[in-house]
Fold these 2 entries.
Entry 1:
Amino acid sequence: MTTMPMVRALNAGLKQAMADDAKVLLMGEDVGALGGVFRVTEGLQAEFGDQRVLDTPLAESGIVGAAIGLALRGYRPVCEIQFDGFVYPAFDQITSQLAKITNRHQGRLSMPIVIRIPYGGHIGAVEHHQESPETLFAHTAGLRVVSPSTPNDAYWMIQQSIASNDPVVFFEPKGRYWPKGEVDLARPALDLHASRVVRTGTDATLIGYGPMVSVLLAAAEVAAEEGRSLEVVDVRSLSPIDWQPIVASVEKTGRAIVAHEASGFLGLGAEIAATVTERAFYSLEAPVLRVTGFDIPFPPARLEKLHLPDADRVLDAVDRAFAY
Amino acid sequence: MADSPAVSVLDEHGAFRPTAAAEPYADRAASVTTEQKLRFLTDMVETRAFDVAAANLQRQGHLALWVSSWGQEAAQVGSARATRPQDTVFPAYREHAVGMIRGLDPLAIVRLLRGVAHGTWDPAESGNFQHYCLVLGSQTLHATGFAMGVQFDGATATGDPERDEAVIVYLGDGATSQGDSNEALVFAASYRTPQVFFIQNNHWAISVPVERQSRVPLAQRASGFGMPGVRIDGNDVLAAYAVTGSMLDAARSGEGPGLIEALTYRIGGHSSSDDPTKYRAEEELQRWALLDPILRLRRHLEVEGVGAEVFDGIDARAADLAADVRRRTLELTEPPVASMFEHVYAEPHPLMDEQLRWLQDYEASFGGDR
Ligand SMILES: Cc1ncc(C[n+]2csc(CCOP(=O)(O)OP(=O)(O)O)c2C)c(N)n1
Ligand SMILES: [Mg+2]
């Protein structure tokens, strides 16, 4: 066990994956000498050279399209998209090509590409720097989508994603880059696509992923002081979703609240609410409620606090779930 | 690559010595009056003062981010002063001088980077200075489509330069690699739009040197798309003014688009979040700092006989402008909650009303102590 922030855990995970497999490449804007604008790739170009850590020309479609070519040639590229809002120039390559090539080749080859995207709010940035576009990718068949919430998960999930033969869109909660957490360098706790109960409770289940998990845990802490016992599930993998722990939790508590920063309309919360309703209908004491960002463009920095779900908003939903 | 011939009119010491490449523009540059040059100097000094004030405000927590134009003032001022009132300007995100010259209140830029709203000015009331565009290269296509519209409207190439419209779009060296930028050049050449692509090659795209984007001078790319490309000394305000004016007037007279590559340097970090010592050499910075565009024009004007009191007056007015921006920034109030839900759509949308009402009720439930 060692303690480090998520940025360092990702850095260590990438370094390990590169040491384990000479075909693993990192590519993106500013990932070389600078080590990425968040320093996730710091020191890796110095260690592995500029043919394994590529500062690419400035074009996201180019990054992903070229990664596809490299994968066809046997490489395992890990692409960094600098910020969530800048993935869209690559959207065509990701959804029309990357997601479909395995299917087109009838399984004769695969696309072991990871696309790392720092996402979400809490950093008070300007437009395009705080978005949560995970649903767009989770909605696309052929892509796997994951998001760690802790340094330990970040360390292991990045390596598991690189080892996956499918394309993985890897959403890094940038607002959680700096808090430290324990990392077990010896062995992974879980499968890449497993969801996990991170706090046990009996009265209601809070469901979230990535940046929301710490908010849900804080809400559960406050609720405990008020005599309410909340269970928290970290979904971890947004496609596929590991339903069993989620459904089992709701069957136990009878109430579920799903939270994410992304807009609510057609967000992952809708999918989770629908599936939980289908699978745990007879256990539910209340409808599954959603706590999400509003259905607006991510607001300017001065207003972001009102947009992002916080522990109070989660607890407000818990109260409503108990009012049924 | 930096050695390929560039149009330069003022040498490093501010002497009027056009290079061979400047020959077609020398008359235009020579006809700039002392009064105009003082205007250019004022623009540059004011922009620098504004930049410093805004960077300080950012450091003190009043802005979310600051992107500086330090070092690039000549490219911006020269090109902007070459536009005509009827022209439309599509900036990237550090064209503060261009905005101010077009009539934009610099506080609007401060409000944008403070994070008050995503668009803080009305281009129609700011000299047709369109919004900043943070997604690299996107604006180039918008400019091209706008220029197509100008053409379809018959608002250009009538033979009257006082009325004929043209469009100028700014982009960085890094942004030239984006698909959008290349598509814009294809469209512009295809439709022969009345448009100038103005690339500020400040040698860096955050930490990535321009050599990663192009093995040839960016100006040279233009010919492959089917339009003229001219490389200029971007720290020479007269070169920027003369070449941009000439290309804009060609565009407005129906000769089609052109591209300018202005060689300049980003003296500061990429933004207030950046630490350039991580990736670039101090000597390079020092070399460019000596080529400061403000210093160069000032030396030129000194030789023309402008007295110290004139420069002092310019400096004093710039200091006043900066102080005024600072004062007005500190007076800014928080944006209203409702503004998040306003103008997401042009027409009423039920979710906006519903969610605003929900949020207002929710906030009220805390009785104002949140
Ligand atoms: C599509 C897109 N990708 C990435 C970014 C992040 N980013 C912001 S500025 C920048 C470098 C831009 O360099 P350049 O075009 O040379 O302009 P400069 O900042 O030097 O003026 C990058 C990578 C972005 N804004 N948009
Ligand atoms: Mg640049």
Entry 2:
Amino acid sequence: MSLPAARPIRLRVNGETVEGQVEPRLTLADFLREHLRLTGTHLGCEHGVCGACTVLVDGRSVRGCLMLALQADGAEVVTIEGIAARCPVRGEAVARGEATLSILQESFRDLHALQCGFCTPGMVATAHALLAENPAPSAEEVRLGISGNLCRCTGYVPIVEAILDAAQRLREGA
Amino acid sequence: MKAAAFEYAAPRSLSEAHALLREHGEDARLLAGGQSLMPVLALRLASPAILVDLNRVAGLDELRGTSAGDLLTGAMVRTRTLELSAEVARTQPLLHAAVPWIAHVQIRNRGTLGGSLSHADPAAELPAVAMASDATLIIAGARGTREQPAHAFFTGLFGTTLAPDEILTGVRWPAWPTGRRHGFVEVARRHGDYAIVGVALTVDLDPDRLVTGARVVVFGAADTAVRASAVEAALIGQPAGEPLAAAAAGHASDGLDARGDLQASAEYRRELAPVLVRRALLQAFGLSAPRAPR
Ligand SMILES: Cc1cc2nc3c(=O)[nH]c(=O)nc-3n(C[C@H](O)[C@H](O)[C@H](O)COP(=O)(O)OP(=O)(O)OC[C@H]3O[C@@H](n4cnc5c(N)ncnc54)[C@H](O)[C@@H]3O)c2cc1C
Ligand code: FES
Ligand code: FES
């Protein structure tokens, strides 16, 4: 059997239009990593369990390993590389070309919410979508919100603290 | 792991989708949210020659009430849409209560109602909820459309009455009668995991709080979600209250063909079923508060 032919896709990734030629079985996560070299999106289990591959598709957090690149044709995708630009307080600095982190990323750094960093892009993408939907979550809501993301290092407590800290700073507009 | 190679088609209409299923027969697999199928492909537990993606088929994602008070939900309605829908919250309290227990937010953002029912995982919430709500499944085949009550749709472990050329297109949830109450509980190792055992039930109470109807569904325990008919029989005609909940729940494992696996033994599941049925009945009788997922 000959391999299925690659097909064209066109989507927006971190605000820029990108085109690609993809084999049907290529996942969105592999497209981002292998074709676009956006290696911030991590792959742990590749079957939906760990959440390391979480990216935003049309504003919602999804597992990048459980979606085909072909299915993202026409979609608006945001990866960890584009999160700072999406931060309500930091977007303008990014537009001016200044290197910066989002408030959420700063809170992760300041409160030691990462150790090895493998889970962090997925955690941050998940938390970014959570805060966009619910700017004032309770600790319980944060724990539920990140229940689909595994972290082998931190024990989760500093991650929850960082997300709550970022929520407060974002509400205060700083 | 990476999936083996497959072809891919994204039909725009049901008739195109049916034509693809006819053309490829057993080699084709429908793709909905992909939250069960993609892991199956990645683990190479199946290797279909072609995926027929339902995501671009028009008209499968409607969610609306009818003039009769029923709720119609298309097969491609995302679990997350059900979770956030004010219409679902208002008209189908059991569905509204159960959906947050399904998996994690990223999975609910993609996973669909039709995918969960068609996949028929014995520990999944939606098949049990559809059974306890007396929902009707709407199924389109090449030769026309048929309707089937949810309780007749599930035939065994991951088994349904769907023929290879049939597509589940939607679900009709009948109007919620006055006097109907619901209960929902499940036990899992961690939030978002499939239930070890769960219970979804509805009971109808008359003005004197006598039980006039009951649909008690235990999931996760056997090869499919099952109705606990001995519990239902023990409820009918009796006054709602703590003694009835305890007495009726005692029958939850009567005739239950419990399965054992890595998570829990069959004995444990048989022990758990009555405990959870009692808790769900207390919720339905208004004697304990429903628990949000944790
Ligand atoms: C980590 C993880 C945790 C999960 N936890 C839970 C949980 O706690 N509870 C739970 O219920 N589920 C859970 N799931 C599964 C999830 O809810 C799935 O989304 C759901 O079971 C399948 O829906 P889908 O739309 O993704 O279907 P898909 O994966 O696309 O399809 C599943 C199957 O159904 C068939 N199919 C799909 N749509 C149709 C249709 N309209 N007509 C006919 N056949 C169709 C497909 O061919 C395939 O065989 C979990 C998944 C993951 C990855
Ligand atoms: S890599 Fe996608 S969930 Fe683990
Ligand atoms: S920081 Fe190492 S896995 Fe989370």
